[in-house]
Amino acid sequence: MTTGRLFWGGLVFFGVGSAWAVLAASYPIGTASKMGPGYFPLVLAVLLAVIGLIAITQAALTPSDAPVQMRPFWPCVVVSAAVVAFGLLLDTAGLVPAVLGLVVISGGQRLRSRPLELLIIATILATGATLLFIRGLQLPLAVFQFGEQ
Fold it and tell me: What is the mean pLDDT of the chain?
């Protein structure tokens, strides 16, 4: 990994971890023996920020002559949009359409994605999610949801 990629990756990790730590701190934290709803997200966010700081420090201490190249942000935008669509579809259409939408939209970030390949992946993931979350864990999620409920 080049020094530039290490630095920018560490910066993203630090930024995301810091933002989530601030959000998680707004929930009751509790203690290690009696955890509140904000405890686990806060611990994960702080660990992510620390990993980011380690990467930034390592990049700063490693000499490099290679120029820093910016990567296109298109894949990040598309995958983020897919996650937002999943959240919206889960409440309005159900688990299966949400998973299908997530896979198809996020698959769009790959320039040469094949529709049949995306359909097979989406079907396998939707089946697995249904078996795991609805049948196995018995979460109160609709498989398909039509109209107002």
Answer: 82
In the numeric block, which tokens belong to residue 3? 């020094």
Q: What is the DSSP string of 49-94?
A: HHHHHHHHHHHHHS---SPP-PPPSHHHHHHHHHHHHHHHHHHHT-
- Residue 82: count of CB within 10 angstroms of its CB: 19
Q: Which two tokens stand for residue 147?
A: 């109209």
Instruction: Write down the domain spans for the chain.
Output: 3-61, 74-136
| Local structure of 97: helix, strand or coil | helix
SS3 content of the chain, % helix, strand, coil (to 5): 65, 0, 30
Per residue in 20-68, pLDDT (tens digit) is: 899 888 888 888 788 888 888 889 999 999 999 999 898 888 876 666 5
Q: Which long-range contacts (CB under 8 A, 24 or more apart) does 110-113 make?
A: 110/75
| Tally of CA atoms within 13 A in the half-sphere of 88 that contains its CB | 8
